[in-house]
Amino acid sequence: MLPPVQRRAFLSTPIAALCAASMGAAKVKPAGKGRPIAVSSANGLETVKLAMDLVKKGHDPLDAAIAGVALVEADPNDHTVGLGGIPNEDGVVELDAAVMHGPTHGGGSVASLRNIKHPAAVARLVMKRTDHCLLVGEGALRFARAHGFPEENLLTEEARKIWLYWKETSSRNDDRIPPPADELDPEVRKFFGPDYVREYGTIHCSVLDTHGDLGCTTTTSGLYYKIPGRVGDSPILGAGLYLNNDVGTAGSTGRGEANLLNLSSFLAVEEMRRSGDKPLKDVLIECCKRIVATNRDKRLQDAKGRPNFNVNFYAIRKNGDFAGAALFAGPKMAVHDGDSARLVDCVPLFDEELKEI
Ligand code: GLY
Questions:
Q1: Total of domains in the chain
Q2: Which residue's alpha carbon is at the smallest distance from atom 5 of ligand 1?
Q3: How far is C-alpha 322 from the geometric centre of its chain's CA atoms?
Q4: pTM for this structure?
Q5: How far is the CA of 293 from the centre of ligand 1 (A)?
Q6: Residues 274 and 288 in one domain
Q7: Where residue 304 falls among pLDDT bands split at 50, 70, 90?
Q8: 15 pLDDT exceeds 60?
């Protein structure tokens, strides 16, 4: 059973939206004998539960992953994905998402998509109903509309208040005045509390099904208060996700620019292939090291010359091994191994937690 907030969000989704969100899903086939695995970012505990339930019933691994992340896309309380995502600097929510399907080695993605709550499902249709891999902005919106995805305002009241407070407090001149502390909305105060970091958020989900086939998706509202049109790693095949059905699947959350500059998810899967049976966590740590080695901009370094941001990786090998890794300690990974779902620590390259960025 879903937790109350996600159940409410799911039940309040119009039928048309649910139909559009499942469009392009493959026919269900009898489940095989292999052990299925689903991994996700820390916000994906319910995601891996639903994905696992579906693959056990014979759903395609990509369709299971898309259905799993749709729970978070519809959750107004997750400010990093779908409905309720923190908007761009103009106060508009712009979503990025991509999918990859192991058996066909197909991929599709959308970037800077407005008004559509389930960008991962739109990305699946880009893969299945076009000869292209990536649609952006207005074109992606028209494509989604044409396929029956309903438009809605994705900026929740809470996200709007957070955005407005950010705008008021980051004004470089005196034309905006933030509210006095005692008048600050409690939700906004909580959001900007001591643990606040400028977030990249995002959810990734990778799935190995009972036939040994792979599927993965990454979906996000991207960097908080981004420049309108900024696209991160999530919709870029090879950067925010990648798979090779003979080898494994990987995806990432965190500072997208670092993954764009290193095609980190492709690197992870290619390193799995090249390295044979190297432990998967070591493969992912290699990807972290690559980011450190190429992060030459002093603006993005701490006093020790290390990145002043975090990047997290999640991966499954074809043989069912799974692992998570991160530059700095702290991030968790959601995993379902066929028996139970839990959060586990990502293996860090640096033992300390990232304090601020
Ligand atoms: N990794 C998500 C983003 O940078 O947009």
A1: 2
A2: 222
A3: 17
A4: 0.92
A5: 20
A6: yes
A7: very high
A8: no
